C-alpha cells in the first residue's frame, strides 16, 4: 500500500458522512470544530466557507477540522456537498500535520482532473436514486478526500524544500518511505534504508531528517507502533504475532516499546479499544 493510503487508513475512524445542504439567501451557519477532516463542494450558487469564496465545482478541505462559518450573502439559495471523515486525533500522522489549515481547490479540470471527475460522479449519485448508492457514496468520499489532500500537498509544496509535501515527491525519500510502509517488519537500519534509496548512510539520514522532520529510525519506530496499535484494535492475533508484524524480534521488546510510546501495555490497549468501539463519522449540519 502506498504511503498516503496507509496514512488515511490508519487515521480514519468509522465511516465517512455526507450531506447535501441548502443555504438560504443572506444566511450564515457556524460550523464547530470537528475531530477529523471536513470538506465542501459547491453544486449551485455561491457561498463563503471561512475566508474562501466558492462557486459551483469549487471545493475546500479543512484537514484539521477547524471551526469556521458557511455564509451565503447573495439573494439566491446555494447548495453544497458536505463530507466529514473522523480521524484519530490522539496520534495524528505527521503528513496531516504538514497540511495547511485550509485547502482550497478551484474548479480547474486541467490541474485536478481526478478531483473534478470525482465531484461529478458524486453529484450524479446524489442526483438520482440509483441502485447501490449506499456502497458507492462512501467509496467516492474516500476518493474525494484523497484528491483534496493531493491538491493540498501540491499547492502547499510551492517553493518549499522540506516537509511531507516535498518528501512524497522526492524520488529518494519517497522510495524509502514506501519501503517502511510496505515492509515495516524488515530489519531496517539507516544504512540499509539509505542503500535501498540509493544514498550513503550519512547523506540519506540528513536528507530524510530535513524533509520528514524526524530521523529515519525515529519515524520507522513511530510507524511500526502505529501498525501495531491498528492490529491490536482490529484483530485478535496474539501479541507475539503483532510484535513480529510490526518489526520486533520478541514480544518482550515489543511490549516495552509499546508501553513507552502509549503509556499502557499492549494487552490493556487492546481491551480498552474493544470497550470503546471506533466512532462512526459525524456529518456536518
Describe this structure in words.
This is AraC family transcriptional regulator. Keywords: DNA-binding, Transcription, Transcription regulation. The chain has 285 residues and is an alpha+beta fold. The chain folds into two domains: 3-157, Sandwich (Jelly Rolls), CATH 2.60.120; 170-275, Homeodomain-like (Arc Repressor Mutant, subunit A), CATH 1.10.10. 48% of the residues lie in helices and 17% in strands. It contains twelve helices and nine strands. It has helices at 3-11, 94-97, 113-127, 133-157, 164-167, 171-182, 190-197, 201-212, 216-234, 239-245, 251-262, 266-275; strands spanning 17-23, 27-31, 36-44, 47-49, 52-54, 59-62, 68-72, 78-86, 103-105. A five-stranded antiparallel sheet has the order 1-8-3-6-9, with helices on one face. Helix 6 packs across helix 7 and helix 9 (216-234) runs antiparallel to helix 10 (239-245). The longest helix is centred in the middle third of the chain and has 25 residues, at 133-157. Residues 277-285 have low confidence and may be disordered.
